[in-house]
Amino acid sequence: MKHKISVSHDEVMVRRLRNDPGFAAEYLKAALNDEDEPQVLLIALRHLAQAQGIAKVAKAAGVERESLYRALSEHGNPRLSTLFAVTKAIGLRLTVEAAP
Fold first, then answer.
1. Is residue 48 part of a domain?
2. Which of 24, 71, 96, 100 has its CA 20 to 30 A from that of 53?
3. Cα distance between residue 5 and residue 1, in whole Å
4. What does the pLDDT look like over 31-70, one tens digit per residue?
């Protein structure tokens, strides 16, 4: 009997984010719009950083790799400066617009 090889949702997202910059921007935008669950933003940033390589993103953001892992972890609470540095390092930026 053949076994199906399964791939986690996180792995699929990281692959897609790595190969599709337009999707990456929309993914982060959707995470920012989820006002009910702020952890969604951390998950999205973690996926985006993994897609480009945590070490590479940490270096570009001027953050220690271990610190970036902690900041973007499930219980992370990154500074605003870290969020801006990471989004800049991955080629995106956080924006604000008027609420409807």
1. yes
2. 96
3. 13
4. 988 878 878 999 999 999 999 999 999 999 999 999 999 9
